[in-house]
Every structure is written in structure tokens, then in C-alpha cells.
Predict the 3D structure of the following.
Amino acid sequence: MKQFQSFVLDTTNECLWHNGEQIALASKPFSVLRYLVENPGRLITHDELLDALWPSTYVQPQVLRTYVLDLRKLLRDDARDPKLIKTIPKRGYSFVAVVTDEPEVRADVPSPTAQDPEGTDLIAREKEIACLQGMAQRAARAERQLVFITGEGGIGKTSLVHSTCQSMKTTSSQVQIAFGHCVEGLSEKESYYAVMEALGPCLAATTETEQKSAAGLSRLRALHDRPTELCEMIEELAREQLLILVVEDIQWAHQATLELISALARRATPARLLVIATYRPQDRSTKLYLKSMKQDLLVRHLCTELALEPLSKQSLRELLSRRLHQQDLPPELAAFVYQRSGGNPLFANALLDHMIAEKFIVRNGSEDQASWKQIASISDMELSVPQELARLIELEIDRLDPAEQRVLEAGSLMNLAFPVWAASAALDENPESVEETCNALERRTGLIRRAGHDDLPNGTRSDFYTFAHEFYREVLYQRQTTARRAKGHMRIAERLQALFAGRESTVAREIAIQYEAAGNWQRTVSTLRACARHSQERHAHQEAAHLLEHALRIAGNLGDAERSALISNIESELETIRESIACEKSQRKKAS
């Protein structure tokens, strides 16, 4: 364990912690960070890093810059005033923070090693595992196979791939596994980037001498613009033993890489080849060519698609049981985590770690009989979005156009579901253009989903959408300034009043919520009192009492001059309602 500032790098379990929270970090960026942390206070040249991390593979130095940029975002380190990673222009990098050994393992946080061996990311994936194993067996008989594994970020695509590959390695010595990863921004500019990364170690492993290995890598580089010969080289590697070629995140791949994958699926030459490609189908960067290519291959029965769905409530309960090593879970925990995570394994694991770090659930009892207990009810928990998830979501949002970001931020002012008219009101923009933006976002990103429409009092209809996850809505809401949020809430409240002019009392509660969120206490109190009068007219006296009690609490925020008289009036109204409630109880008692 290596500690620097508020971070702990767990080199045994290959993960990064920050203030008790585990941060999502891919393998290559982790390796770069680890090398820097293990060699602090000195210049580490580009060549040294490349030789240390890619000893048998040709990798352009540009890839280091990409990984370091990602690390800086994750660590919140400013390149202009670095506290962690300092760039030495044209030479390399230096890790400038103080690094200390941290031998102690956190006792109050489940060990990350408990996740992978227990298979928490692979719960309810038996069908997909069996399918991949069957495809590997057919590929071993020289029946080439191509499979696309699709699903949202954090759904478990990489875990499924690694589990299958590890299983094949342990059951057969006649298998080569080649991993390549498409890097956002870099892979889109360089053809075959991920394929070159994957094949380099294979060529080095299949040659007997260092001289032959170098010749093989030189030949690989020479095939950079010759796709037919590159196909032939891959088939040559797959002639005698099974080759599993994994290309991850192909939504960021250069079109030449996609064309190569398509060609490998279509060629008729027998090859012991299984190509596994993973991607997020609704990522903004997912190309039209990729979608049409996959569809054409599916129609021709030249590929298989495994679309990973979120976990069910029961499967998520099983995930939590495995993580906590106990069957009897704290009350409401499984339902709460399922509701907050939407069944996404990455979100669920991060949320559980966050709850443990914040001590909402704690481990009690002796070592042999210790169990996890919930120390507060779910309703009393005020949990923010786990920090590492917030960063991932921010990166996803930042890929959108500024206009699309503003529409989503406006929608977050309502709730998990939002009507288009409300988003357009918050932005003070034309509803038709906002609706078109929402429609495009649904089709392309999957961040929101259309859930129906509202019939408005003016005779028009307005679609409404829901966010894919509650975490997305919270991040979008919190990234706005207080002033901008207040202005948006005010505009929504005023639009509600205009839409329901003459019968505002029917939506007074919703109007009051918006005024309160905007911090306009005077209008909030006025609207709550109007809503209470409407409840009284319906003889809903208990409801009216709750509304006036709420109005009393809000009135406490007003200035001294207006607060005293207003509170006196509300208390008088509340007393009248309480008398009505007591009278009703007395009448019911007599009637019974």
C-alpha cells in the first residue's frame, strides 16, 4: 500500500482509494500511476515508462499523455500547479508528492479482493458465460467466432470477458489471449490502435529469440496500412491454437479497426479465432458504421450479441450478500441500493463502499460472529453521489454539446422524471427545440428515456422523460451554480401558474416546491397557505395541517419585520384546522 496526500494505492489488489472510497481506475492508467508512485521524486522519461509498461509492444508516446491527462482529472491535479504529477517538457514526468508505505488494511471497509473471487460482478450472468464458453469451444474447432458484448458503463462487460478468458486459460494450455483497449480521442485518430496493442505480446510470446520477436513487431508495424495482410497475420496466429482477440470500447475505435473486425468475421478461411468486442451502444461517440456493421453481421449469422441488462432486485440482493459475507442484510438496504443504482453492479458496489465509509452501516460483534448493522433508517441517510461515480458521470456529461448539457441540467430541476415544458421554462427556450434535443439524447446516449406525455390545460401535449439513473440527475443538479438553479426553479413555478391560471390551487403544492427550491420564502409560504385552503375545501384537514406546519417552518427564514405577523396568521389558521380535525374525530366516535 502506498499513500500520498489523501490517496492510498493498493498495489496488491490493484485499486485506488480516496478518503475511504474506492476510485474506478482502468488497468493501464493504474499501471502508469503505480510506476510513478513507486519512483517518486525523479525524472521518469517517456522511454522508461514505455519500456516498463509495454516491453514487447510498439506504443506511441502520445498514449502516455492521454493516460496522464485521465489521471490528473481523477486526482484533481492541476497541470499548471501540479501537486502530484509534474510534466517535464519533452522529457517525461515526475511524481512530486511525498509517498509513504501504508501497511494497514482498512478494517471497516470490505476488502476489494472479496469482490472478484466471489464474482459479484458476474451474478446472474450464467447464460452469457455459457454462451461465451460455447463460442470458444467452437472457435477451438477452427470455426471462427465474433461476439459483441454491449451494455451501459459499469454493467460488467469487462468482468465477463476477463472471467471467460481466465476460465479458458485454466482449462487449456492451447490458448492465446490478446487484449486491446480503445482509448477515447487516441484510438479514433489511429487505425488499428487497439489491435496493435493486443497483438504485440502475442508475437513476442510465439517467437523463440529476441531477434525474432523484434522482427515480428517490425512486421506488425509495417502492416499498419495493409488490412488484408493484417487479417492473414491474425489468422496465422490462430492456425495451431485458439486465439481470443479482445477489443474493448470499440465505440472509440477508428473505422479501420471496425472494418478489420468485420473482415475477420466474413473471411471463410478456417481459423481458431474468437473475437470479443465490447462497447456501449448508446454512447455519444458510437458510430453509425458500427451499428450498421453489427446489424448486417447479425442478419448474416456471422456474429452474436450479448446485451447485458441491469441486475434484478434478487440478483442485487445476492451481490450485497456476497460483498458483506452474510445472508441477513440490514433492513431496507437491498431495496435502497437497488433503487439508487438501478441494478448497475458498478454503481451498487460504489454505493455500498460509500455507505460503509460514511458509517451508515458498520460491522459489530466479535471476529467470528461479526455482522454488518445499519445504524440509521434509510429515510435519515443523506448520501451524496459516491465521488468516483460523480467523476465518471461528469466525464460522460462533458462529452455532450453545451446545449445538450443545459437541457439535462434544466430537467434535473424537477426530479427523476421531468416534462419538456418544465425544462424549456427553466431555460426560457422554445419547447419544440428542447423536445427535439431530448429525443436526440434518448436515441444517442441513453442518459434519459421517454416515459410518456402530459396533456396540458392549454390543449397542448408535452413529452416527459426520466433519467437513466438517479445519480445522473443529482450530478447534473449539483454542477449548476446556486443562482442558476434558483432562476430555473422560479421560471418553472411561474410557468406552472400561467399554465393553470384560474385553478392554481390544484398544483399549488408543486408550485410551492419550486419556490422553496429557489429560496423565495415569501412566495413559498403564500402558495402553501393557498394549497392548505384548497385541502380544507376538500375536507382534507390533516393534509391542510401538514401544509401549514410546513409553511410555519419556511416562515422562520423571513426577516424580523414580516416574520412575526405572518407566523401569527398561520398559527391562527392552523388552530382552526386542528379544531376541525378534533370535531371530526368526536363525530366519528359518536357514530361508532
